[in-house]
Amino acid sequence: MSAVNESLVRETPVRETAPGYRPGRTLPLRVEALRQWRRRRTLVMGGVLAALPFIMIIAFAVGGGPDDGRGGGDGRITLIDTATASGANFAATCLFVSAGFLLVVPVALFCGDTVASEAGWSSLRYLLASPVPRARLLWSKLVVALGFSLAAIVLLPVVALAAGTAAYGWGPLKLPTGGALAAADTVPRLALAVAFVFVSQLVTAGLAFWLSTRTDAPLGAVGGAVGLTIVGNVLDAVTALGSWREFLPAHWQFAWADALQPQLEWGGMIKGAAVSVSYAVVLFALAFRGFSRKDITS
Predict the structure, then answer these.
(1) CA distance 219 to 224
(2) What are 213-220's contacts with CB under 8 Å, separation 24+?
(3) With bands split at pLDDT 50, 70 and 90, how would you rate the model's confidence at 66?
(4) Which residues pair with 181 in a beta bridge?
(5) What does the pLDDT look like over 267-296, one tens digit per residue?
(6) What average pLDDT score do residues 170-189 get?
(7) pLDDT (average), residues 9-20
(8) Cα 220 to the chain's mean position, in Å?
């Protein structure tokens, strides 16, 4: 009889989780998105990006507009010189002046603040004790952070296109190199440019997210990502590096301008996207690997 009981004990599966528990249903994306949406920094960042086009319109009105198409002192015409030619030109100009640094800030903020802020509030260990699996927690936060980053990058040109059209009218996109894109082609080309800007910012997102899993200080993660992005821009300006600069994500950050040419050029955008995605995949993998082994004490 004893042998039979021991056999039943061995064959009976042990329930390790509570009935009805589903790891994939913990910390739903809508819950995390709502939490991040209610954060003050989200609303402030959205307000800053939405206000920039109107500030530029006021600046052009006060300053008499760009150089009336005459270009700078060397006679060259830049994208800024055509900013008031149409709403599409104004949107492209806003993207040009913000892609190098301003759009880096919201990406670093949303991706760098997401995990580190929980640690700083000493709420991270309670989330994991809910219990939310570590991989699920990181996945939810990463998806929401990338979603808010994309929204921030899209918000600026959309507001600029609407405000520029109201201020300067709707028409073809005048190219600094000569010629123009038909009005019907401007929105798809601008959408392609915005998509590349988002892909190029994945490096900053990956760096900020990785740092966010390594520190309890949100400003450290955000500042570190922004600082290293600036270092990349500085290194790209060192022409002595030659072809080595092509391995820097910063080298391709303005390749989206190829989408605004009469003949669409894909070469630079494909190379830039490949470099950015490669770095981002490695950084995201490091974040998940390090966090899965980290001793959570905060």
Answers:
(1) 8
(2) 213/115, 213/116, 213/138, 213/287, 213/290, 213/291, 213/294, 214/290, 215/116, 215/119, 216/116, 216/119, 216/120, 216/298, 217/116, 217/120, 218/112, 218/113, 218/116, 218/117, 218/120, 220/116
(3) low
(4) 173
(5) 899 999 999 999 999 999 999 998 877 666
(6) 85
(7) 45
(8) 18
pLDDT in tens, 234-274: 998 898 888 899 999 988 988 998 888 888 889 899 999 99
What's the pLDDT tens digit per position in 80-127? 888 888 899 999 999 998 988 899 999 999 999 888 887 767 666 666
Which residue bears the tokens 């939310």? Answer: 132
- Cα separation of 259 and 191, whole Å? 9
